[in-house]
Structure prediction request, 885 residues.
Amino acid sequence: MIDILLFAFFWLIATLLGEWGVHAMEARGLYYSAATSQALDGEKAVAFILTMLVPVIAFVVVMLIYTAIRFRSRKSLQFRDNKVFIGIWVLFSIALNILFFVHPSASALEQMFNNEEARLNRHDLIVNVTARQWEWIFSYPQYGIQTAEDSNGNSTLYLPVNQNVRFVLRSYDPYHTYDPNGAVIHDFWIPAFGLKQDIIPGETRLEYVHTNKITSYDVDPMVRVQCAEVCGPGHPFMEAPVHVVSSSDFMKWVQAQRKLEAS
Amino acid sequence: MSANAAGLSGVDTANRQRRRIAPPVIRGLLWAAIGFLVFNTLVSQVIDRQPYDPFVTRVSATVGWAAAVIGWLLGVGAWEVIVRPFFGHPVEWDIPNDWRRYFMFSTDHKVVGLQYIFTTTGSFLLAGLAAMMMRMELMNAKLWVFTNPGAYLTTVGIHGTVMMFSVGTVALVGGFANYFIPLMMGSNSSAYPRMSGLSHWLLPAGIATVFLSPLLGQWTTGWRAYAPLSGQDPSGIVFYYLGVFAMTTSSLLVAINLTATIIFNRAPGLTWNRLPMFGWGILAVSLLTIIWVPEIQMTFIISLLNLIVPFSLFEQTGSPLTYMESFWLFGHPEVYIIVVPAFALWQEIIPVMGQKTLFARQWGVLGLVFVMLFSGLVWAHHMFTNMRNSEMLPFSFFTEMISIPTGFSYLVVLGTLWGARLKFSTPTLFVLMSMFNFLIGGITGVLLADPVINLQTHDTFFVLSHFHYTVIGSMVFTWLAAAYYWLPKLSGRMYNETLGKLGAIWVFIAFNSAFGQMFFVGLRGMNRWVAVYPQYLQNMNFSISMFAFLLGLGFLFNFVHITWMWNKGKPVGQNPWNGKTLEWFGTPKPGIATFSPLPHVETGFYDYSENTPPTPSPPKRM
Prediction:
């Protein structure tokens, strides 16, 4: 009996410490940097799962340490069954997993699917993203911008803040269209945006985000487009800076881009 | 004696001793070289001669390789043991009773097990060296060890492939199970001893093929070999497909052999209800292998044909997703092929070390079997970033649910630990550490099973760390636990307890420091397969590399310690841990029949209450 009480005490302490740790991490930002509502949803899901799992982790870890220290070279206690303990364990693990499936898995996924509903996305900013080995090409069909580039000719992505953005993702090489089998799988990832999408040759895939914070690659290196699926030796170099700016700055940038393309 | 058990008795020894052949491994290498040269030349210069083609083409390398592997297998002994007897000749194969038996075809399951253990350890060290090179490159955000990112990616691919197919899949199954499953079943031989002898020699052929792949050119895909990238690289990927074919065939033969051994070679009285936990684990894992390995072999054969014929099955005009799906259909069960024997070993070692009756044994068996059944239902969680939305929920569901049967292994071990008389030895320590590491791997697995979180962490160092926690953290730690636990049986000698504990603590601290940080570097935006990365990640990567080197040295320390004690350790008796499974009651020496007469099992192996009779009761004559 004393063992059970002692164990419960240590378990409680470890759980409290663990919860404190998780919440400290949550306060600092589990994703380090979150610039879209999708990233915030992801962070919330991580925080929820970890908060619920801390007692479970604490139970196993304290049990491993406690038994290793306490149950040494005494007379052993022989038993092969404990219906109550097994019953609680089995039912609890089933309940916990069903909980996680309902929330956050299914609930957050529903949120994500809703973001992709056509009826909710009538005023999206559309960005056509073309991935080739090894370059990102961004074009803005609504603004007549063919290839968004900075003055050095490097691809760059500008987005207005508080705006739904629809990325239209394709993988092919617009400069070598004679080779239909030249494309490989890429992955469109902006670390601060909290999600990524593979780009499969021959398929057009969509990704929706809602920007919620003015930020840029200049202040936060996580605000960059990074290819996340290995695509050959040039894979690490396949990145592009991202700027999330106010809508007036965005319009200024659009004007500048048009002038740049006209010249 | 073991040769007799396997039906390989020679007729007249005197006659056979006059026959002299080159050392089998040398002869195998020679025959392999001849096979490659002849068939490569035939294909590239005669049958399929194209203007401007080099001497070695993709097609000729494939055909030449097949001839080389056949030459190698015949040379190490398949010619005398399998081919000639098939045509009615007597078996003329002398197995000297010394170190040389490990360098030739053998039908003794203990010799085969040790061959697997040596080969696996060697490939672990070589592929580990590749990992050290990768970590050295990643100490700096710029290229500085490798001259180009393709060379780095080729190293990544070799590391992953060899660790997967020659260490993860093989170490506990081909190695320890080949040695100990027949012993635990109370049998003097595995069910198909000749096939077993053949299976080991495919492994070094496969390892060598993968390590030699840079001879044909770089391949930048990593061990997953995703099309269409695999078709764009230079031809190194050809040797990836071929090497993996040899290694997986080796695993497949082991699985067939061990399944048959467990089903048919059990000693009298060893009923299914009394089957040891390791037996259940190996049975589950062997069935998984038999189901899924042929699937990946077909996928790779089709990919190879896609490359050398060539077709365009998996390119833009074909279906790139089909390859990924075929790959992960095997790729996830593979994870459980690696980790299920580890679960089983926890449940094997802890009752012995605790001298405590195994808790809730039926739940442990259920757990192993259900993990095996579920493992084919979760694979598409590797593809949340590229599948249809509607497919995410069912795979997310099953992935979360698989943690329930996995948890049963913890239920059993924790219940057994409670109130035990625990001997705090090195194997105990390694098992407890392994359980901690798998807990971290499992918790991060629950996070990854959630699609929204997965879309952020997929293809980052978060995932990398997660699966290294499950593979190194649990399987390799359990491998070391098993090595220390069974060392007295393998060598008749005991390791040094202080050095053993030092080794355990060393690798535990280094492992958790290195891979624990990788979760965070992944969340901060470190993606996989990059030799060059943004500057802001350099400090963390430098620190990870330091602990990774420490981990490499820690593994080396454990191997040196085990090898040293294998030869120089303090001799111990038959059963130093007071275990009850049958392997503790047989003769430990290779080359000698273990049980004579066969034991008769009268109770289960995990009952430590005081009034139980010792298992097995003194062997009775049948």
